[in-house]
């Protein structure tokens, strides 16, 4: 593969990983992923921005087969899907130095055993003159690790944003088509970026001071429609949640499913948007995505060995890790002879800034009276949602 010139003497080198099924041995990748690196050729120096996952070593170095000299490697992020081939790149180019911040340097030394004398440490706002190509380093911490930063290429108004604005999407297309990239980008945001909404706000504000004509992320296609990418992040991270209830449930013998079906109907009758996901076989990326704009999350579970079903615990734990902007929580559960389901789930969810507005506990198969309690819960949710915009 040959690098593709995306601006004068600026090249894109995406390595697609079409058949990768999981990221971090956890996150499903229905569309695969890609690892994007870039080359900037100034009159003084050739600079490589990031590398690729070591699993794709051959494809990555194929791009560099014609490059006799690389002077610097910018390491925006120490996670191995971008940094993993830095040791091999330094071996191939023995005079190259790694341009990165102090935190990333430390991580690359501990995680990849890069030797200290290979680094040149940069600071926030530093400018590096590659010869007619000025790289300005813009620290964007916690999107999604503490060391992450972006590089702004002043002459071409390109922002190399690393994971920020990325999408797990393997595609031969270099440039994002907004309608096609929207879902992979939202999935990526939900799984990777959502816990860091406050940092996203700060970083978006910081980047608003730059005239950006194109965003080149380290996963997925590049964004010529900068406004689209930035506005999606504003919607997901900063806007109020929507008039949407996310109902996550698991049912063993059908009793919990009855509660869920009644709740969904009662919510819809009252104008609340609903997304219902069965945790029995739900893709956790879809669960994460559904959490992005829901104002209420309802967990519905049977009782298993005196507590919630393990799949309900997993979903609650996922919510506590991803920290969506949900405002209200509710629990519905069925039981045979007792248990501590609400206490258990409340503990798991305690770090969310959301109130538990209701619970419905049903012994065995729901009766008419039980279903009326579900209707009451729907009324409570609908009242809480009155001020919210309609779910998209
Ligand atoms: Fe794509 Fe955080 O690495």
Please characterize this protein's 3D structure.
This protein is an alpha/beta fold and 392 residues long. The chain has two domains: 4-238, Metallo-beta-lactamase, Chain A; 244-384, Rossmann fold. It is 33% helix and 27% strand. It is built from twelve helices and 20 strands. α5 packs across α9, α6 (197-207) runs antiparallel to α7 (226-238) and α8 crosses α12 (368-384). The chain is elongated, with a radius of gyration of 24 Å. Residues 77, 79, 81-82, 144, 163, 218-219 line the site of MU-OXO-diiron (FEO).
Question: Briefly, what is this?
Answer:
Strands 1-2-5-6-7-8-9 form a seven-stranded mixed beta sheet. Strands 15, 16, 17, 18, 19 and 20 form a six-stranded mixed beta sheet that branches. Strands 10-11-12-13-14 form a five-stranded mixed beta sheet, with helices on one face. It is elongated.
